Each structure stands twice: as C-alpha cells, then as structure tokens.
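retry 2 of 3: previous attempt timed out while embedding potassium ion. Reduced batch size to 1 and resubmitted. Inputs unchanged:
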Amino acid sequence: MQPVLNINDVRCVEVALTREGVSVSELMHRAGYAAAQEVLELGDVDNVVVLTGLGNNGGDGWVAAEALHGRGVNVKVVCPIEPDGLSGDLARQVAQSAVRAGVSTLVGPPRDELESLLETADVVLDCMLGTGFHGEVRAPFDIWIECVNACGARVVSVDVPSGLSGQTGHAASACVVADMTVTMLSLKPGLLADDGRDVCGAIVVAPLAEQTERLVVDADPVAWRTDLSDYLEVTAPRSAAVDKFSRGSVLVVGGSRRFPGAAIMAARAAARMGAGYVTLAMPASAAGVAQAHLLEIPVVALPEDADGVITSDARDVVLKLAERSSAVLVGPGMRVSGGTCALVSALLGSSTPLVIDADGLNCLARLTNGELPEFPEVTRRTAPLILTPHRGELGRLVGATTPVPDSLVSQLEAARKVVWSDGGSELVVVTKSNATACVGVERAVLPKPGPAALATAGSGDVLSGMMAAALAMHRDEDPDLALLAAYVCEVHGYAGSLAAERVGSHAVMAGDLINVIGLAADAVDEHAAFPEGPDEG
Ligand SMILES: NC(=O)C1=CN([C@@H]2O[C@H](COP(=O)(O)OP(=O)(O)OC[C@H]3O[C@@H](n4cnc5c(N)ncnc54)[C@H](OP(=O)(O)O)[C@@H]3O)[C@@H](O)[C@H]2O)[C@@H](O)CC1
Ligand SMILES: [K+]
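retry 2 succeeded.
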C-alpha cells in the first residue's frame, strides 16, 4: 500500500529529513532531478519549456532545467521576474546556477510570445505553483495556465498541477491539466479525488531520500492507497468442496412499494458476488414484483403500512432470518419510517455481520439525531458492521456537528469521527464519492477509483449487495474489514469498466454491472495474484 499524507504532514517529513541530515537544498535538487528524469523517460524530448513560479516549486523547475540542459535538451525557462530578483534564497540560488550553466530564460513574456514558445515544446514542465498555492490563481500564472492547457505539448507537473489544492483536490478556475504529475515524498489526498482525478494524469511519487519511507509512515498517513497485490489477503480462497451454504448466505432487507428495484438489484449483486444463498425480505406488496424478477432468490413478504413501507411488526421474522444468515444488508429502497428505524435498530442488536446502506443509513441518522459519533453504543457490536454512505448520507450521519463532506479529506474526517468514537475493529465506514475510502479504526484504505460509468442509478445498491456477500463469504476468517471493503469496491469499479466496454461508457445501467461482477472478481483476483500478468508473475 502507498501512504497518503496531508500537506502539513509532508512538511513535517521535510523537517524530519533535514534533522537527519538531508537539507532542503538537497531535497530541491533531488526533486528537480527526479522531474527531469521523468521528462526524459517520456521519449522524443528535444525541446522543453519550464514554467516557474516564485517559490520552491519554481526552484524545483530551475534544477530540472539545468539537469535537462546538461543532458543536451533544448530548454527554455519562463519566469515572472528576473532570477536575481527571487526573494527565496534557495529558489534564487538554483535559478542563478541554471543561468550560469547556460539555460536560457524568458522573463514575463506577453501572451502571444508565450503561445509561440509553447508551440515549439515537446514537453512543458509545470513548476509555477506547488503546495504553497492557496486561493485563486493570480497573474501572470492564470494566463500561463490557459496557454499551457491550450498547447499541444505533453505536460508534466511538479509536485501538484498548478492551480490544484494538493490537500482538498479542488481546482481553482485556472488549473493545469497534466499528463503526468511527479509528486514529492508521498501521495497527497488532493491528487486522488475530485478535480485532482481529472488534472493529475499519471502520478509518480519521488521519494527523494532513503529515509523517506520510514518518516512518511511515522507521520501517520491520512490514508493508504492499495496496490492490487494487497488484496491477496482477502480474495476468497475457494475449496473444491463447497456447497451453497458453505459459500455463505445473505439476507437483504429493503425495498418499498414505491422503490422495489434497489433491493432486488442488491440481492442479485450479492448472488453474483458469490454468496451461495440469498434471501430477499420486502414489504408484501413489493414481494410479488420482486419474485417475478428473481427466479433463484426466494422473496419473503414482510408486514407493511399503508404506504407499502415495512413496519416494526417485521422485526421477529427478520431477526429469525438474520440469525440463519451469514450476513445481512439492510436499507436499499426501504424509506425512513418508525418501522424501518426499529428494524435497523433490531438488526444492529443482532450478532450477524451487517451492512447498512441508503435509507438504512438515514434511519441510523434519525435514530442518533444526526450525531452518530455521540452514540457509539449504537454501532458497537461483536459482529462486523459496514456502513456505506455517500457524501450526503455521511453528512446526515454526523451533520449536527459537521458540514457535508466536499473533499476526500473531509470524508475521511467525518468517517473517522464515527469509527473512532466506536473504537472497535468491527466497524468500517465506506465513504463513497469519486474517491471512495474504506475507513477502519486503524487505517483508511483507498481502492482504485472506478470509472465514471459507475455513476448510475442503482450502482450503490449493487455495491452494498456485493459488500454483504463478501462479509458472508469471509465470515469465518476474521478478515481485515477495511481491506475487504476496498476489495469489493475494486471489483465494483472493475465491473464498471467491463460493463462500459460491453454497452458503451454512457450506457451502463446497474443491471449491466451485476452481470459482470463474476468476471470482474476473477480479473481482480488474478491481478492480485499476478500483478505483472500471469507470464511474468
Ligand atoms: N515538501 C518537500 O519536501 C519538498 C518541496 N519542494 C517543493 O517546494 C514546493 C513548496 O514550495 P513553497 O512552499 O515555496 O510553495 P510554492 O508552491 O512554490 O508556492 C509559493 C509561491 O506561490 C505564490 N502563490 C501562492 N498562492 C498563489 C496564488 N493564488 N497565485 C499566485 N501565486 C501564488 C506564493 O506567493 P505568496 O503567497 O507568498 O505571495 C509563493 O511565491 C513543493 O510544492 C515542492 O515543489 C521541493 O523543493 C523539495 C522537497
Ligand atoms: K506545479
């Protein structure tokens, strides 16, 4: 797994490195060389334009320019002011060194001159703004960024694309769209989420020093991004002698007369994920529709109110079914009512592994007045509990004290409030967004984000059904729950890619995802076992 550090913690690592004898000047040189090396490795690089800012990100650029010049590349550095005028000592020194070495410069060019220069470039190296950037981009960089994004050259950003917050992942109205980002010391959360996903291109981490790995771990990473091989621990080792019950059974409780589909999709997804036996429990008036769609899955009719919503009279029958199941999913399409809240509360009190999604989460928010972290006794149980809120639902769970998360870091913060107040390793919050994080008490795991094709109605119901199946299939193994949840997200994402290939990226419906879950799981399992491909592996 690769650690992800908050920007402030990256600065702490920088300080720790200097204490261990690696000066900031040395770090800047290594950063510049690392960037230059990545540029050269792109191939066919004769002309490079380096755009520099006034801080240390610019300093990295001057070092890279001198290194590329030394390798025979035709380099031009564009800078807002004369190198001698740079106020930071380090940046000024490396700029002066580059000029002495013969690197040519262009100071404060008018727009048309910059455009003409960029037309000649094979690669543009973006060293305008790094982690010191805040607010809206000021001149001249706003114009420079427009010119970079309009030119045809390949763009490599140093540390972060200029205009992107490396912390929040929010881009300013001017932001470089890079083909590659060479980031220093460790991944940063803003590179992995929201606008960061669109503007970073391929991300390469340059560690800069041999002590970095240790110091980054000491700095308490805010999250860990998985590599496929990490999932080996949680891919299902299937013995040849399985029967339908030994593969795990799932109970899905949900649906309403108005919304029967969500629970149906979740049940089908659980079966496709590999649960040997799936039961769906729904309000009576929806059960007939459901059974007509589900030949392989028995549907149990539950007592309902006048609106076709499950009532609290369903409690005993649901608890009995739960007792016989390896895992339960509650929530999809269920609506929020006194009856459904009572059901969620009863299932929390059971000893069966549980996934709560959608309206089940809204019931949980109502049961705890939007202050879930204040009621740890509600989530504390002996069996696993996975909550799968999207940002809005997470906001409702913690909303009395915390605004709706609008970034990966705020998702992580809100989810941590919940898991830390609970304090046990049986609880994982899967906070869903364009960058989903599986947050356990010990660490937050980031699966590779799925494709845009996943943004379709019912996609979340499919995920929660898969999640329940994974809990059921691993019930006897005491798995690392955050990692298991991340594995499920990874399979869900892969299913999105496969479905997009089959039906077109804009056409994917949740049913298409369900049909390819098995193929997606096989593919992820194979990649986990043979990360380099079966031949080389
Ligand atoms: N961490 C490490 O170990 C290592 C870090 N290194 C590198 O250092 C970088 C961080 O350097 P940094 O702190 O000097 O900040 P940087 O990003 O260059 O920006 C500061 C300049 O931008 C300006 N500026 C700010 N906002 C602005 C705006 N909206 N619009 C316009 N301008 C704006 C700001 O102006 P000010 O706000 O001061 O007026 C100041 O002039 C980091 O990203 C990495 O590349 C490596 O060298 C070595 C290892
Ligand atoms: K940059």
